[in-house]
Amino acid sequence: GNMDEYALQLLTATGERSWYNMIRTGSTITLEAWDRKFKPNLDWNHAWGAAPANAIPRLPMGIEPTGPGWKRMRIQPRPGPLKEAQIKVPTLLGSVEAAFAQTADSFALTVGIPSGSVAEVALPCPDGRIRLTVDGQKQKGTRNGKYICFELQPGRHTCCVEKRR
Description:
With 165 residues, the chain is mainly beta. It has helices spanning 4-12, 19-24, 51-58, and strands spanning 63-65, 72-75, 84-89, 96-102, 106-113, 118-124, 130-134, 137-138, 142-144, 147-152, 155-163. The longest helix has 9 residues, at 4-12.
């Protein structure tokens, strides 16, 4: 919902009502409630608490299928203020690996796309003139709001969007 910064704040919160608090209470799996004080008879294995395991790959990292069996996928990171992150997402065709790093003037993504899949990539980009490269080669893309969009074939790729001066 274009609330990247707020989403990251919720995921990284350390208060009583946070996933971090589940760790602080000694749990190694997701709880039914944030803490025993909110639900004294809570169980220590509850699916709702595992929401970050579903949300992080799809939202901040932006990896989701757009076709059956992951034959097509979208990779559209929504990092908010997060400077860097990496993830490995299992799929039926093999793992999708992604790592990004961002500064005020650039966004770099290294991605591994499994054989048999094609990725529609949308990278955050600064306003104004930009330069897009894929594997060190200048690439054309289509602007869509605050993103530059292009397609990637299977393999390992390094993509970078930089503000031109």
